[in-house]
Specification:
Number of domains: 3
Strand order of the largest sheet: 8-5-3-2-1-11
GO molecular function: peptidase activity
Number of strands: 16
CATH topology of the largest domain: 2-enoyl-CoA Hydratase, Chain A, domain 1
Membrane topology: Multi-pass membrane protein
Subcellular location: Membrane
Structural class: alpha/beta
CATH architecture of the largest domain: Alpha-Beta Complex
Shape: rod-shaped
Keywords: Hydrolase, Membrane, Protease, Signal, Transmembrane, Transmembrane helix
Protein name: Serine protease
């Protein structure tokens, strides 16, 4: 059992670690007039939006003169992208969207963020575009041409095509609104959404999609000097010559969120949590499985809160696990268990309601979890079946048919030894000391026995 003192030694360092990590880095530096450099790499998700939001709020509070979003991203979740764009539009500090280093890209969600930034810049040999929303209905496809209102319904267009058009039109209106606010090319913005068009850095500059090309951050600051931008507080002229650049790294909270918001990690946490609680309920008093299971399940639920999960997929997974657990306690010759495995696999496949690359559950992980669950279920059923075939070793049934030896004979009582125990017995035929007998009946604590055909008078 864990004592309070042991809990202190375990939890104390963790509390100190988290409190220490919560203290903002570089809090004693004078950051007034500096440029905050944020690196947005990989898939844009909840952790990315939280990181950008905190860094921009910090920059505004500490008097930063510029915020640079250095991006290399294939895109990400619509909700996270819109949160970042809302922060950019409301920022009193100019935000520069910068695709770098050379070879980087800002596809899909990254293109929208570039259009929302006060200044858009790219390094040579980079590209942006392919902004078509990929969160489409199952089996949906992009329409070759958007029909006039009402025409699709008359032609018998399916509801999936209608939903696809709605998603496309919403994305077009959104990016055109950003383009109009920043004075950028609206026609190409629409083309990037409808046709998934992409541009190189030089082409983007020529088509007025971006404002400048810079090979690195130093060159970017030189090119920005003297430019006028329109922010929430009014027009501002940038003075970036000799400006200090402060890299802003994600804090412990953003790193933790990035880990648990990974769909595969959230999936594993949920399984560990559920199976831990099942084990604790089946074996009360172990404590550790219940503690680990509860913590894992809470972390998984937090991750699912920020991920676009399908409620039907989650319900099927929980139902499948419940069926497999019920098979252990209510044997149904495999019906509940097999149904549970099927429901579990289907729920795992449709759990995440998105087609964004990087935000799906790995097939090998699903297969491994299903096989492990099925293997555990098979082991339980095998052990249950084997226990039913095993001879009874206690109770009335164990005594019937057992053999013993007469140890004492008197006029009113016979004593026999059966399974190493002495029992009072009654016989309907004469017996002698040392004769072997077989138990035929059990009346209370008295055995009804009969002599065996072969006598054994020796111990």
């Amino acid at each position: 059992m864990f004592t309070s003192k042991r809990y202190f030694w375990i939890l104390g360092p963790l509390v100190c670690l988290f409190l220490g990590g919560a203290v903002p880095a570089q809090q004693n530096q004078n950051l007034t007039g500096a440029a905050f450099l944020l690196d947005v790499r990989g898939v844009i998700g909840p952790a990315t939006s939280d990181y950008v939001q905190r860094a921009m709020a910090r920059g505004s509070a500490e008097g930063a003169a510029l915020i640079i979003l250095r991006m290399d991203t294939p895109g990400g979740l619509d909700t996270a992208m819109r949160e970042i764009i809302q922060d950019i539009l409301a920022s009193p500090v100019p935000v520069v969207g910068y695709i770098a280093p050379s070879g980087a890209r800002a596809a899909s969600a990254g293109t929208y963020i570039m259009y929302a930034s006060h200044i858009a810049a790219m390094a040579p040999a980079t590209n942006l575009g392919a902004a078509t929303p990929v969160h489409l209905p199952m089996g949906g496809r992009l329409p070759e041409k958007t029909p006039p209102p009402g025409e699709g319904e008359e032609a018998g267009t399916s509801s999936e095509d209608t939903l696809t058009r709605k998603a496309i039109n919403d994305a077009v209106a959104y990016i055109k609104g950003l383009a109009a606010q920043r004075g950028r090319n609206e026609r190409w913005a629409e083309k990037a959404v409808r046709e998934a068009a992409s541009l190189s850095a030089q082409e983007a500059l020529e088509m007025e999609v971006i404002d400048l090309i810079a090979r690195d951050v130093s060159a970017l600051l030189k090119r920005l000097d003297g430019r006028t931008v329109d922010v929430v507080g009014g027009e501002m002229t940038l003075q970036t010559t000799g400006m200090t650049v402060i890299p802003v790294e994600p804090n412990w909270r953003d790193r933790l969120l990035a880990i648990i918001a990974n769909p595969n990690v959230a999936y594993i946490l949920m399984l560990v949590g559920i199976y831990g609680l099942i084990f604790e309920m089946a074996n009360p008093g172990f404590v550790l499985p219940g503690v680990v299971g509860t913590i894992s399940l809470l972390l998984a639920l937090y991750a699912f809160q920020v991920l676009p999960i399908s409620s039907a997929g989650l319900a099927l997974m929980l139902l499948g696990i419940a069926f497999m657990a019920a098979e252990i306690f209510v044997p149904s010759f495999g019906a509940l268990g097999i149904g549970g495995v099927i429901a579990f696999v289907i729920g795992s496949v449709i759990l995440l309601d998105t087609n964004v690359p990087g935000y799906d559950i790995s097939w090998p992980l699903i297969v491994a979890a299903a096989v492990s669950s099925a293997g555990f279920l098979y082991m339980v059923l095998f052990l249950t079946a084997r226990s039913q075939r095993r001879p009874v070793v206690s109770g009335r049934e164990q005594m019937l048919g057992a053999t013993g030896k007469v140890t004492a004979v008197s006029e009113d009582k016979i004593t026999v030894r059966v399974h190493g125990e002495l029992w009072s017995a009654q016989v309907r035929e004469p017996v002698i000391l040392g004769q072997r007998v077989r138990v035929m009946e059990l009346e209370g604590l008295v055995l009804i026995v009969k002599p065996e055909l072969e006598e054994n008078l020796h111990d």
